Amino acid sequence: MVLWGQVLGALLVILVGYLCLPGLLRRRKPQEPPLDKGSMPWLGHAIAFRKNMFEFLKGMRAKHGDIFTVQLGGQYFTFVMDPLSFGPIIKDTQRTLDFVQYAQELVRKVFGYQPTEGDHQMVHSASSKHLMGDGLEDLNKVMLNSLSLIMLGPKGWSLDASFWHEDGLFQFCYNTLFKAGYLSLFGYTKNVAQDLLQAEELFMKFRRFDLLFPRFVYSLLSPREWLEVGQLQRLFHKTLSVEHNLEKDGVSGWLCYMLQFLREQGVAPAMQAKFNFMMLWASQGNTGPTSFWALLFLLKHPEALQAVRKEATEVLGEARLEATQFFTFKLSALQHTPVLNSVMEETLRLAASPTLLRAIQKDYILKMANGQEYLLRQGDKVALFPYLSVHMDPDIHPKPTTFKYDRFLNPNGSRKMHFYKEGKKIHHYNMPWGSGVSICPGRFFALSEIKLFILIMITYFDLELMDSDTPVPPMDPQRWGFGTLQPRHDVRFRYRLKCME
Predict the structure, then answer these.
(1) By CB neighbour count within 10 A (0-12 exposed, 13-18 middle, 19+ buried), where does 110 fall?
(2) Rounded CA separation 214/221 (Å)
(3) Which of 120, 318, 374, 378 is the most buried (most CB within 10 A)?
(4) CA distances from 378 to 23, 38, 357, 362, 382 (A)
(5) How many Å apart are CA 497 and CA 148, to the nearest integer?
(6) Where is heme bound in this sequence (predicted)?
(7) For residue 201, what are the contacts with CB-CB under 8 A and spacing of at least 6?
(8) d(CA 432, CA 72)
(9) What is the 3-state secondary structure (H, E, C) of 238-303?
(10) Distance from CA of residue 414 to its chain's centroid?
(11) Delimiting residues of CATH 1.10.630.10 domain(s) in the chain
(12) Which residues of the chain form CATH 3.30.43.20?
């Protein structure tokens, strides 16, 4: 017994030494950025970073300047905080800074999906074909029908819809957009009522997975939560299986294109189900939360709501319901809403906080905008956090924490695209979708979903906050770096279908 204790003790010492020794030995080389390993071996600054990424990086920038390297859980990340220096990292024509490697590691861990060669290009090709241009128009029609079905009910408009309904704004937006997006992309069976029920149940499971997601990525779940995540993964794999896909009509061309590619690559059906789960999360994890912030900002700023409603009336006409009891909507109007477009850009500036990561394949010299050159070490990762370095920069966006619905409009009503930092024009003035090779391939469909939903809400419904003085809720610090932020708590509102002749 004593011998086994000694052996286990020795193994523990070896393990700790293996994990901590590289960090203890690491020193800043000439020309490298400032190095801050933190006080804890191996962990470094991981705890502070995961507790509140925004505040941590703000403190590091104040301490070290526009570029610094920090240790986070045995890995080294170099953060570049000067947006005028983003260009070489985003473009990287030599492909020294690799996005695909990090993305593949993440999807293996979170979704259990084993990527195949060409996956990244395949997703972008499918999105270009089916989530833009004519493909997007077709999908918008399906989305409009899905929203009509969900918001008016399977039997269409009823007198009950004209009475006030109370709900949490975040819950309402997330629930509605998730179900409409899921049905539009993954199709319907012949039993529409059962489809709606299943979509509702799936949302509840999706929401639970989404709440666990940030800590899952950082491996901070309790044993019970690890078991729960595994159960949720298996449920989604079963629900989104290839067999279930065959039972449905109207599966989107986007999804069919990608699954056909996987079949041709010899990917097993079980792995295709994991791919479907990954695509469900990628397509529906941010649209609901973004629509929440957009509607909340409009309700908190009456002048903005009035401007968007005026524009909606001009491009859509007066609200009315068809005899078929579906929303009447000229989908071409989505291309003629500069005010709403500005509202969306401003909402995303305030609420979207992606992290852009690249794995450094070999030693790389980064030349900053001020002419200073830094050596980035092979094996490290370089990271951009535009929310802090761009979206909240008062030089680029005066009063950055304030919602200004026309911030992205010129006086003549055209889109404003000229922003400056230190007197220099800046190309990356708003980065909610990422940029370069990691830019969101489904951004056009996501934006259309949200705009369609908002236009329906402000055109066909009366809506108001239960308490007009309720403050905008704070952001949940666990969501920093994971797409659209979520509120710490919901906001109550009420809505009713407008009386229509």
Answers:
(1) middle
(2) 9
(3) 374
(4) 15, 21, 14, 4, 10
(5) 12
(6) 440
(7) none
(8) 24
(9) HHCCHHHHHCCECCCHHHHHHHHHHHHCCCCHHHHHHHHHHHHHHHHCCHHHHHHHHHHHHHHCHH
(10) 27
(11) 119-352+417-497
(12) 2-114+355-384
Do the annotations mark residue 91 as ligand-binding?
Answer: no
Pairwise CA distance, residues 181 & 324, whole Å? 21
The CA-based angle 26-28-30, given to 5 degrees, is 140
End-to-end CA distance of the chain: 85
* CA-based nearest residue to 245, from 197, 188, 309: 188
Residue 430 annotated as binding site? no
| Helix/strand/coil percentages in the chain, nearest 5 | 55, 15, 35
* Alpha-helix runs per DSSP H in 153-241: 169-186, 192-217, 223-239
Protein fold of 119-352+417-497: Cytochrome p450 (1.10.630)
Q: What is the pTM of this model?
A: 0.93
Is residue 381 part of an annotated ligand binding site?
yes
pLDDT in tens, 6-64: 444 444 434 444 445 555 679 999 999 999 999 999 999 999 999 999 999 999 999 99
Pairing of β 67-72 and β 35-36: parallel
Q: Residue 436 region, left (φ>0) first, then alpha (ψ -120 to 50), else beta?
A: left
Q: Cα separations (Å) of 29 from 26, 37, 132, 176, 375?
A: 9, 14, 47, 53, 8
DSSP per position, 365-411: EEEPTTS-EEEEPTT-EEEE-HIIIIIT-TTTSSSTTS--TTTTB-T
* Model confidence at 323: pLDDT above 50: yes
Q: What is the enclosing helix (H) or strand (E) of 449?
A: helix 443-460
Q: Would the pLDDT of 161 be above 80?
A: no
Question: Which pair of tokens denotes residue 75?
Answer: 């890995």
410 is in an annotated binding site: no
Instruction: Enter the tokens of residue 258.
Output: 């990608």
Per-residue CA distances from 362 to 68, 375, 408, 473 (Å):
18, 10, 39, 43
Q: Which two tokens stand for residue 46?
A: 């991981």
Which CATH entry fits the domain spanning 2-114+355-384: 3.40.630.10, 3.40.50.300, 3.30.43.20, 3.40.50.150? 3.30.43.20
